[in-house]
Amino acid sequence: MTAREFATWASTRGIPDRTIEELLQYAASPEEMEEACDAMEPAPPIYTLDDIVEMTDKDPYGVFARANGLIVVGGCPNGDPIAIDLADEPGSVWYICHETMSARPVREVSIRVASDLTEMQNGMARGGFPYDYFDARDRARPSGGVDVLHPLLSCD
Predict the structure, then answer these.
(1) Tell me, what DSSP letter sits at residue 153?
(2) What angle do CA 149, 116, 74 make, to 5 degrees?
(3) pLDDT digit string (tens) for 67-86?
(4) Residue at 156 is within a domain
């Protein structure tokens, strides 16, 4: 899929222009995905453009992310999907708890980890960024506030 084809597809799905630009910038190439698989390493956090289209249009996780104002764009090393909010905080990045995502409404098992993909990528590059849903949830301060995270609801 070309960048132009992806941008056209993404626009028709209500993805904000800024988020489309970030996805084009950060999406893994097919070669990067293959190298990670061959090396038995985790995939890059933002999957290929083709993968994003497939996850959005076919809903392989069966969680109706798009119907809940989210699109899945990648994954954490443990399998927690990484999603972009299209409804409440357009462009913000969320981790979805893969252990319970099929049993509960997806918004109830998601946690906001960044205001956008650039913030997430920069946090990962610096190190110390949450690596999955539970790590993000555990970093929340007892008052409910967090440094870069905003929990919606607990996965428990």
Answers:
(1) S
(2) 90
(3) 889 999 999 998 899 999 99
(4) no
